[in-house]
Design a protein that fits this description.
By secondary structure, this protein is α+β, with helices and mostly antiparallel strands. The chain is 17% helix and 36% strand. The protein folds into three domains: 79 residues, Aspartate Aminotransferase, domain 1; 135 residues, no CATH class; 112 residues, no CATH class. It has five helices and 24 strands. A hairpin with a 4-residue loop joins strand 15 and strand 16. The protein starts with 20 loop residues before the first strand and ends with a strand.
Length: 363
């Protein structure tokens, strides 16, 4: 049987001594985010590893590109083994300015076997609104290769049909964003207690009630008069504040791998646990019978002999008092020799009895 992986992570040493985190790591400023860009382009200069002649969209794209350059050709006469059609993707950061360079990812959409050694011809990158925000072009870097022989056999490493162009896209349209007189913080992990603590920390630092929680996931902040024209310093001040986050007690169980992740805030009521293992061992010892030396004749016979042994483990009953932390629970279960698979069953049984004060999530 495949050995199960057993991992127990204590997310905090104690609920009263939980480490504080920066506001910057707990929230996102609404509207200040990346934007996804995507476009279509052609990779040229491949060494016979491009799309096959059956890729009509590659042939038509190549013919249209040549037509725009003043060269009219018959699409039926084009061979595209050195050309590949690709999708170009990139992320446009917030407050991006014109002439800023972006990294882009190139992915083949045809039946090209490799993009190694190719060059991307100028490809416009579109935003969700259909406008062009960047132009991508340049030699592609592929972290793999594909080599094949005439007989069809070959060797492939990594994914040669996907590559990158570091700094290959240039921003053409600036992303100007006005935060205005107020801003909204969106919690990464919505929680009422964390939102309350964050509001108190912000108001205490500002010396006025400039923040209030609309719900468990959003905090509205009014920019003070002294920071109206210096919004960067105000945001930096808010992001540097430290808040002790509060999370709901939860136990995550992965039955396929035997992985169990539990927070330190998980508590259990008074419960008694008994665990006994039933071990069954089956062994086969063949007995060989053959004729004596120099005998007149005979046949060698092999008789299998099977032995079955059943052992039942005599584990003791473990009593855990109310309020026991997860650390003590794990120590007690280890003392009676609980395996990762058995631990999953025990946790599910404790939850069914109502003695586990945490959400049990099985994935």
């Amino acid at each position: 049987m495949k050995r199960l992986l057993f991992i127990i992570i204590l997310l905090s040493l104690a609920s009263t001594n939980a480490l504080a985190a920066r506001v910057k790591d707990l929230v996102q400023i609404q509207g200040v985010r990346e934007n996804r860009l995507a476009g279509y382009g052609l990779i040229v200069g491949l060494n016979g590893t491009g799309d096959k002649s059956g890729s009509q969209f590659t042939v038509r794209s190549l013919a249209n590109m040549l037509r725009n350059m003043g060269i009219t050709v018959d699409p039926n006469s084009l061979k595209v083994k050195n050309v590949a059609a690709v999708i170009v993707t990139s992320n446009l950061p917030p407050f991006a300015k014109s002439s800023q360079k972006l990294d882009c990812t190139i992915s083949s959409v045809g039946d090209a076997s490799s993009l190694a050694g190719g060059t991307l011809i100028s490809a416009p990158l579109y935003g969700p609104d259909g406008k062009v925000y960047a132009m991508a072009q340049g030699p592609i870097s592929v972290g793999g290769f594909a080599v094949s022989g005439d007989s069809g056999s070959g060797v492939t490493k990594n994914f040669p049909t996907v590559g990158t162009i570091p700094g290959g896209a240039i921003v053409e349209r600036s992303m100007d964003l006005d935060l205005g007189q107020s801003m909204t913080l969106v919690m990464n992990n919505p929680d009422f207690t964390t939102a309350h603590r964050m509001v108190e920390s912000i108001n205490s630092r500002a010396g006025a009630k400039i923040a209030h929680a609309k719900d468990l996931s959003t905090i509205q902040i009014e920019v003070p008069q002294g920071y109206k024209n210096n919004i960067v310093d105000f945001v930096a001040m808010i992001e540097s504040l430290e808040v002790r986050p509060d999370n709901k007690a939860k136990v995550i169980v992965n039955e396929r791998t035997g992985t169990v992740v539990m927070g330190n805030d998980v508590k259990i009521a008074t419960v008694a646990i008994a665990h006994g293992n039933l071990n069954i061992k089956i062994s086969e010892d063949p007995i060989v019978s053959q004729p004596a030396p120099f005998s007149a004749g005979g046949v060698t016979a092999v008789t299998p002999q099977t032995g079955v042994t059943v052992e039942e483990g005599g584990r003791q009953l473990v009593m855990l008092p109310a309020g026991t932390s997860i650390g003590k629970l794990v120590s007690a279960l280890n003392a009676i020799g609980v395996s990762p698979r058995d631990l999953v069953v025990i946790l599910q049984s404790i939850k069914r009895t109502g003695a586990l004060y945490a959400d049990l999530e099985v994935i």
